[in-house]
Inverse folding.
């Protein structure tokens, strides 16, 4: 049985935010114990059918009256149709960076979830049902402010869950953070979209510039200047593709002091000028 890499198989040839997105999943035949490599944490909002999931010796089964928050990793899952011969759920994916940012904003440093259970079962209620009905991949892929809307929806459901389940849910969220993510990597990756210079990020890591560069190269296998430039130019390309912004609107936020230098770097990386993307 082949391994399905999710969410990669859902985002082929689609322009989606790599940190957070929604996918409407429908099926008209049962699938029993399919092998899944789940690359992002994911809400599974089941609306029609039944679902059973196995993960490293643990398993859970839910129906349309429940939803799941699943930890990224290798899973075996079974999806069964209902009496109307259909299976339908909405999948809400979010990156570890998105989760880390949320936890930093709204929670304190808490002890990890003691049982280290890879899933959290959510009992659906009227509020959650209304939230689920507001999610649609078509809405968030065709809206000018889709990324901002999705971020608000993510915070909405997370805050509601914290209010509904309290510390139990808070502890679980903290357990989703990979143990190998160091404070150094958290600081680096939380500043990808900032306009801070390398020496400024080194300062935030409590390192000298030379120590930071050496540590960075060991961690990411390339110099920090090139790594940050590539990440920020990719972000610039995504912003320009949205059609709402021009190069003159974003070059400072991407970390360039003038428009000319930004345009040269952009063309060197992508082979086209920023104006070719946004026009």
């Amino acid at each position: 049985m082949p391994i399905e890499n999710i969410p990669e198989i859902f985002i082929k040839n689609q322009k989606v935010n790599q940190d957070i997105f929604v996918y409407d999943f429908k099926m008209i035949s049962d699938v029993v114990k399919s092998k899944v490599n789940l690359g992002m944490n994911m809400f599974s909002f089941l609306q029609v059918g039944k679902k059973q999931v196995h993960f490293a010796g643990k398993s859970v089964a839910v129906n349309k009256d429940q939803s799941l928050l699943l930890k990224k990793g290798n899973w075996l899952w079974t999806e069964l149709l209902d009496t109307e011969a259909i299976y339908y759920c909405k999948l809400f994916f979010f990156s570890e960076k998105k989760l880390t940012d949320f936890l930093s904003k709204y929670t304190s440093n808490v002890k990890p979830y003691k049982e280290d259970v890879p899933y959290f079962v959510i009992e659906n209620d009227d509020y959650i049902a209304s939230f689920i009905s507001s999610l649609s991949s078509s809405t968030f892929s065709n809206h000018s402010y889709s990324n901002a809307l999705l971020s608000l929806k993510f915070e909405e459901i997370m805050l509601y869950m914290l209010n509904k389940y309290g510390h139990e849910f808070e502890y679980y969220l903290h357990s989703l953070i990979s143990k190998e993510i160091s404070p150094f990597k958290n600081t680096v990756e939380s500043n990808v979209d900032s306009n801070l210079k390398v020496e400024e990020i080194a300062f935030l890591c409590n390192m000298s510039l030379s120590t930071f560069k050496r540590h960075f190269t060991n961690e990411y296998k390339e110099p920090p200047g090139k790594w940050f430039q590539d990440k920020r130019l990719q972000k610039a390309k995504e912003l320009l593709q949205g059609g709402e912004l021009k190069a003159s609107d974003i070059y400072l936020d991407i970390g360039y002091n003038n428009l000319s230098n930004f345009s040269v770097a952009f063309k060197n990386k992508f082979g086209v000028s920023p104006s070719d993307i946004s026009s």
Notes: The beta strands are 3-6, 20-27, 31-38, 41-48, 50-55, 58-62, 66-70, 73-80, 87-94, 119-123.
